[in-house]
UniProtKB/TrEMBL annotation:
One of its GO terms (biological process) is lipid metabolic process. Gene3D superfamilies: Phosphatidylinositol (PI) phosphodiesterase. Residues 1-23 form the signal peptide. The keyword Signal applies. It holds the Pfam family GDPD. SUPFAM superfamilies: PLC-like phosphodiesterases. This is GP-PDE domain-containing protein. Residues 52-307 form the GP-PDE domain. InterPro entries: GP_PDE_dom (IPR030395), PLC-like_Pdiesterase_TIM-brl (IPR017946). Keywords: Signal. GO terms for molecular function: phosphoric diester hydrolase activity. The keyword Cell membrane does not apply.
């Protein structure tokens, strides 16, 4: 990422650091209920929240993951970025999907009413995949949506704006050598994704590519130096090492270990940090109080509500 943190953010995080009595990064993380009095009438919390990026995690809660309807709902709720996952069909079409096998985790997917619990996207053509319909499990009559092509996501939101600024994408890629049956060879996999990105017509500042597989990110960067790659990690205390190894100015990390100490240390090195996936009021306020630069959440709507309340 070219942009570091917004002007004045280092000061805000320093204030947050001094005003929040959180555990040292070397000690076990002890979370406790948030108190609005901690930051003096929420002034600092408001300013931090206003400067944070908001990424809709696979879109937003209440819609089938990784669908155009879910991304649009997230943008409409105020998210400036949609986070999405990529999978490859048997005829090498890139689709927005979290898992190689549909119908697991939160989604319920079917093909002409038939279960897909043992069907892998890599073993299906896109013609078949396009007939799949997915909906959230916890709805008795779920809104069902098709699995979109990656290029359809680019096309749908090319001219979309959020608060007057172009909508952005956080693109997560996966490649696991112990699951080769679900992917083409890595070299081909990366070539397909890079080609789609380059043909999208999107400017480079409107997206980045993240992954837990940092070696795959290195290989992508070698093929396409113009694409920003971002290490995706679980423990925030390893964020500096992960970002440094990839030469990244941004890291996306799990939220529970994120503290003002960790954020301040990253900012001192010119590295921004976005936390995933806090979804409750307490979790979102924890990340704001830590001074993070952004959040990846299923509840963009809830983040906006919290931000508005902090800034009243």
């Amino acid at each position: 990422m070219k942009r570091i943190f917004p002007s004045g953010m280092a000061f805000l995080v320093t204030v947050a650091f001094s005003l929040t009595a959180l555990a040292q990064t070397t000690a076990p993380i002890q979370r406790r209920p948030f108190s609005g009095d901690t930051l003096g009438k929420n002034a600092v919390m408001c300013l931090i929240a206003k400067n944070m990026e908001v990424h809709g995690h696979r879109g937003i809660d209440g819609y089938a993951n990784n669908t155009l309807a879910s991304f649009k709902a997230a943008f409409d709720a105020g998210a400036d970025t949609a986070e999405l996952d990529l999978m490859i069909t048997g005829d090498d079409q890139i689709v927005a999907a979290h898992d190689p096998i549909p119908n697991i985790k939160a989604e319920r997917c079917s093909l002409h009413g038939k279960s897909l619990e043992k069907a892998a996207l890599r073993h299906m053509s896109y013609a078949e995949t396009s007939q799949i319909r997915c909906g959230e499990r916890h709805y008795s009559e779920p809104r069902t949506e098709p699995i979109p092509l990656f290029r359809e996501v680019f096309s749908a939101f090319k001219d979309y704006k959020v608060a007057g600024k172009p909508a952005r994408l956080n693109i997560e890629i996966k490649y696991f050598k112990d699951q080769e049956q679900y992917f083409p060879a890595e070299d081909q996999y990366l070539d397909l994704i890079i080609k789609e990105i380059r043909q999208s017509g999107w400017s480079q500042d409107r997206f980045f590519v993240q992954s837990f597989n940092h070696e795959t990110l290195k290989n992508l960067k070698a093929k396409a130096p113009e694409i920003d790659v971002v290490p995706l990690i679980w423990d925030a205390r390893g964020a500096l090492e992960a970002a440094s190894k990839l030469g990244s100015r941004l890291v996306t990390t799990g939220w529970p270990q994120l503290t003002p100490e960790v954020v301040f240390g990253l900012h001192q090195k010119g590295i921004r940090v976005i936390a995933w996936t806090p979804n409750s009021v307490e979790e979102l306020k924890w990340v704001i109080a830590a001074g993070a630069d952004g959040v990846i959440t299923d509840r963009a709507d809830l983040f906006m509500k919290i931000r508005d309340e902090l800034c009243e």
